[in-house]
Amino acid sequence: MLVIVAVTTRTIARVSAPSRPLRIAAVPLMLAAGGLLSVQSEINGRLAGAIGAGSRAGVTAATISFGSGLVILALITAALPRQRRALAALVAAVRARRLRVVELAGGLSGAFLVATQGITVGTIGVALFSVALTAGQSASSLAVDHAGLGPSGRQAFSVPRAIAAVFAVSAVLLAASERLVDDFSWQVAVFATLPLVAGVGLAVQQAINGRVAAQVGAWTTALNNFAWGTAALVLVLGAMAVARGLPGPLPSNPWLYAGGAVGVVYIWLTALLVRVHGVLVLGLCLIAGQVITAQLIELVAGETHMGPLGIAAGLLVVAGVGVALAVRRPPATEETSVRG
């Protein structure tokens, strides 16, 4: 399996017009990338819970996740001449104004997302977190395309995206209503809005990451994201430590520190796979993989926060993905309009 993934991703990086077999092979990778985001949410949520409670524990977990991811990326970049040249190309692109500094700031959205994982997952569960996140991501993608933030510039209104957004927003309302009826509290209500906002930022992050990846490649784009996100989280955690002190001691379970490595693979895959199917299909497959994996995680863990309505909400998101894919524009038109 690992050999197949390596060959597929290497081929994607080398071609500008993917063949039909390559497009088919990329679909399970896109679904897997979405699943990785749910896995990271579960890991970071558990890490935050093991550290303590509240926003300090969440930000501490996010800082550890981003910081460890940055270390992994930096070490590999230093060891590979090709990636060192790509990093130099990033600096040159900024100096030549082919990239603006604001286009490098996608990692700030990622930092907010990871901090939100640590703060909210322990309270609302990974499934509701994922449904809320995908609702924000789907709805905001319409505005992101209209504003022209992606690498292909401004895009006209897309009926498939609108369908996916309607399904996703309906799903989060359905899932949230069940949880609020069963266990109403303002904390759950407020916490459910945080991943919704994070989803808005995730759509922006994917768009500007596409601009950076078009200049310097997916790997350097991931390194840039982790550098910005780590810097922001260290500043926030430092301010919290000065005001309220540090949270409790760090846990000894090594698996709780795997969130950074998972995040590295997620960012790299999404920046790479957007070349194959474009932003639309990538986003839809990420949503499907994320929601399905989140439901499976809670089912296996035996700690589900969702009942029948929550499961229906997850199925509604997946149904929206299927409908949007079924009625999307012909491949030639889609590639012309969304390719980064």
From TrEMBL:
Keyword terms, alphabetized: Membrane, Transmembrane, Transmembrane helix
Keyword Transmembrane: yes
Keyword Transmembrane helix found: yes
Transmembrane segments: 21-39, 59-80, 101-120, 126-144, 156-178, 184-204, 225-243, 255-274, 279-297, 309-327
Pfam family, one: DMT_YdcZ
Name listed for the protein in its UniProt record: DMT family transporter
Lineage, broadest ranks: Bacteria, Bacillati, Actinomycetota, Actinomycetes, Propionibacteriales
